[in-house]
Specification:
Number of domains: 1
Order of helices and strands: EEHEHEHEEHHEHHEEEEHEEEE
Oligomer: single chain
CATH topology: Double-stranded beta-helix
Bound molecules: N-oxalylglycine, manganese (II) ion
Number of helices: 8
Largest sheet: 7 strands, mixed
CATH class: Alpha Beta
Strand content: 15-25%
CATH superfamily: Clavaminate synthase-like
Distance between the termini: 40 Å
């Protein structure tokens, strides 16, 4: 059964119609996975999807990322992470709270988990509590952006490794935030600056707010190149801004899409459920570890 798709942007992203992810069959997933490889971002509206179904869906893409315990054995122990300004007590975190500052660090263009030993293939976000206005998530196609990038800039990036660290993106928002243990748990990681999709053969720029240097390049020159490259692929023509409705599900390819949160009225609660799936060798990860 072919999926019913409509484009949401000229260069990437589709809305998938007439499907409930809760009732997904193996054949249905095969079509979704194919659309994911080709279109980089999938939107599903009006989904009835609880945490257990969210977890089951994520597992179809690969191994679930669990930052609390990378060696977790029992499924039952996995709690679906939320991206939210709601505190444990159910109140809304103050704008100057470290919790809110961390959300503000998500407003820098990034892909998820480039600072982990294994970066993310995808993030499956579900809108649980949405704001009246604003609070959109923006997505930029680093595949189309890379395809259009001038050769001079591409040549500076090809065959290079970028160094990533979690504390780097946090330090751009708050020095205090960047010092927290959770942002300093993992040593820096290097990834190639271009990710080739093994299914389609398409290349995409692979950089993020966590990237702070280019190996073998002078510090200043490297960070300038990172800014320029991110600036190029996040120009308005490559960006889709998603205005959340409750029960939206967005699934995107971290290898080919950058994303960022955008501000909202911080007195309003906003909550998204988020499960990242780690990339694997079938996703082209091994080729990202070194220049060969
Ligand atoms: C994330 C993220 C953006 C948002 O969940 O990884 O960056 O809009 N979220 O909350
Ligand atoms: Mn993110």
């Amino acid at each position: 059964m072919a999926l019913s798709l409509t484009a949401i942007h000229e260069r990437f992203g589709v809305e998938v119609h007439d499907i409930q992810l809760a009732g997904l069959t193996d054949e249905g997933f095969a079509d979704i996975r194919d659309a994911f490889e080709r279109h980089s971002l999938l939107l599903f509206r009006n989904q009835t999807i609880d945490d257990a179904t969210h977890i089951a869906l994520a597992k179809r893409f690969g191994a679930i990322e669990n930052r609390q315990d990378m060696t977790l054995k029992a499924d039952a122990d996995f709690k679906v992470p939320t991206v939210s300004n709601l505190t444990k007590n159910g109140t809304v975190a103050d704008e100057s709270d470290l919790q809110t500052l961390n959300l503000k660090a998500n407003m820098l263009w990034h892909c998820d988990s480039t600072f982990l030993p294994i970066p993310a293939l995808t993030n499956i976000l579900i809108a649980r509590t949405v704001t009246k206005e604003k609070g959109h998530t923006e997505f930029a196609t680093s595949r189309a952006g890379w395809a259009d990038m001038p050769e001079v800039m591409k040549n500076k990036l090809r065959g290079r490794m970028a160094r990533h660290h979690y504390a780097h993106s946090r330090a751009r928002i708050s020095e205090e935030l960047s010092k927290l243990p959770e942002f300093n748990k993992w040593p820096e990681r290097s990834w190639k600056t271009v990710w080739t999709n093994p299914v389609t053969g398409d290349e995409a720029l692979y950089l993020a707010s966590h990237a702070f240097a280019i190996e073998g390049m002078d510090a200043e020159e490297g960070s300038q190149l990172i800014d320029e490259a991110l600036g190029f692929v996040t120009q308005p023509e490559y960006v889709y801004a998603h205005a959340w409705r409750e029960d939206d599900v967005v699934i995107w390819d971290q290898r080919a899409v950058l994303h960022r949160a955008t501000p909202w009225n911080y007195n309003e609660p906003r909550k998204l459920s988020s499960i990242c799936v780690s990339a694997s060798s079938e996703d082209g990860l091994d080729l990202m570890r070194s220049i060969g």
